[in-house]
Amino acid sequence: MLVSMDAEELAARWRERLESWAIPPEIVAAAPADPWSHSPERFGTRTDRALSEPDDGPTMSRLAEALPDQGTLLDVGSGPGAASLPLRGRIGHLYAVDTSAAMLDGLVIRAEKLGVPVTAVEGRWPDVADQVPVVDVTIAAHVVYNVPDLAEFLRALDARTRGRVVLELPHRHPMSWMTPLWQHFHGVSRPVRPIAEDCVALAAALGFAVRVEEREAPLERFTSLEELAASACRRICLDPARAAEVAATAQELGMWPVPRDRWVTVWWE
Ligand SMILES: C[S@@+](CC[C@H](N)C(=O)[O-])C[C@H]1O[C@@H](n2cnc3c(N)ncnc32)[C@H](O)[C@@H]1O
After folding, report:
1. Does residue 110 line the site of ligand 1, with CB under 6 A?
2. Cα-Cα-Cα-Cα dihedral of 249, 263, 19, 101, to 10°?
3. Confidence band of 219 (pLDDT split at 50, 70, 90)
4. Is the CB of 145 under 6 A from ligand 1?
5. DSSP code per residue over 215-227
6. Apex CA 245: angle with CA 38 and CA 172, to 5°?
7. Cis geometry, peptide bond prior to residue 24 (ω within 30 degrees of 0)
8. 228-248 pLDDT, tens digit each
9. Cβ of 251 less than 6 Å from ligand 1
10. For a substitution probing ligand 1, which of 15, 37, 98 has the most ligand atoms within 8 Å of its CB?
11. Model-level pTM greater than 0.85?
12. Residue-range domains of the chain with CATH
């Protein structure tokens, strides 16, 4: 028997599953740094690579074919612009929304160098949705696993878009690769859901005619074992002084090199 769930149930499941990723409070309390924060430097490097090595994968292709020449593009959870600035010559005006001022500063500096007219809006989507106009095309890349109220987030993207909405997300939660390290260092099991299909099911239940394409991530997650260890220390709430131990453990557990993620592109008109 086919059981179909309505959008409300799927939205509640998404929220519960995201909540199941919460780090035990006693571990967070002892953490030397915020385990959830995104580094503007790391995403700046990702953006510079996206600008210097053009990618013809599904996300850029779906955006490029839908964006009218000199059209308006909205990038939600923009970071420094890895998912929008590569379309530089085609963009009439870019609206970038992010909760992080440091990420937006990185985007504005790059946009100005590239000659892309830009408006940066600092704040949480959808709270700040009324600060941007209705645009031709919208992208939200690598954001949905940060968003507990996903139905509200997706509806606001749709309401602010005349043409196509594009999402890009890894197939699994972006912290999934560290599951063996959580077990090893803290004896803590990590969840599996939500996964990309949960987001796709919710978008479809909201009434959007979603299409989906999946591929291997074009970028390695880390370029060295040292980089992995530094990142893992922060994410799993360990002192950075333990980086060598984390690196050795990652090797012993067969976690290096980290297999590439699968990235999923979801879009609707
Ligand atoms: C993983 S980064 C992705 C950045 C960029 N889109 C990319 O693909 O490289 C996620 C970004 O979304 C921002 N963010 C998370 N939730 C948000 C929300 N509800 N509204 C606006 N920005 C959000 C974070 O501050 C961060 O800059």
Report:
1. no
2. 90
3. confident
4. no
5. EE-SS-S-SSHHH
6. 40
7. no
8. 999 999 999 999 999 999 999
9. no
10. 98
11. yes
12. 7-255 (3.40.50.150)
